[in-house]
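Pasting as-is:
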Amino acid sequence: MRPALPDEVEEYRDSHWHREGEGQVQTPAQAERFIERVGYATCLTDSRRPGPSLYVAVCGRRDAVLPRNVQKDPESSHTWALKDEMLRRGRVYYGKLACGRAMFLAPRMVPYFNALWGMPRRHEKTRLSKPAFAVLRVLRKEWEMGTADLRVESGVPDRKAFTAAVDELQAAMIVMPTNVVYQPKFTYLWGLTEERFPQALSRKIDRQTALREIARCFLDGAGLTVRGELARVTGLSRPDAGLGNRALVKEGYAVMLSPGTYRLANCPVPRNYA
C-alpha cells in the first residue's frame, strides 16, 4: 500500500494525468496529446497502480478500476480501440518495455528510454537469444510482418518461445507493434523501431541525463513522488530512480522531503510532508 498523499498532490495529479471529467480522453488526437503531455503512460492499468494511464484518462476519474470482464466494459474497450488507432497513426511509441508492461512514450522521451534499455546493433548477435535474433533477422529483411508469418519465417514455430523472443526485442526497443488487424483473424504487425523513430533513436544520450529526464518527466506530472513510485512506473531500479531524483534536487528543480520522497520545487505541497 502506498502512503496517503496530501489532497493538493492528488488534485495536481488529477489535472496533469487527466483524472477528472474535464480532461477526459475520447479521440485518438486527444490520446496523442495526453501521451505528449505526460511523457509516458501505461495503457490498461487503473488507480491501483501509480503513474499516468490511458485507461484512467479515458474514464476521467481518479478512482477508476478495471472490471473483471474487460471485454464487455465500454471504457476499457474504448481504451483498446484508441491504442489500436494510435498504432496505425504511428505518432507515439508503444511497446512492452523493461517493466514488462505495455507503455506509451512521447517521441521526446524515446531517446532517454533508449539510452537505458536500448541495445546497440553491434551487440545484438551476442546479447540477444537465438530466437530473438532469428526474428530480428527476418524483420531486417522484410521490415514489417504479421505474427503468424513471422513465426514461420523466423523458424520459431513454438508460440511461447516466439512470444518471449518478441518481448525481448521490445524490451530492447528494437522491435515494436506497428498495426493490428482483426480480419480475417486478429494479429499484430511487427516492425523495426528505427524505421518509425529514426531521429529519436539516433540521439546520443548519456545514462545520467536519461535518469534525470525520466525522473523529471514523472515529477512534472506527479508533483510529488514517494519511495519506490518512480521505479514501479518506469521499471528502473530503486537506486537508479534515486539517482534521477537527486539530480533534480541538485539543479534546484526538486526538493527532497525525506529519503525517497521528492517534490517539485514549485509544487503546492505542504513543505513538512514526509
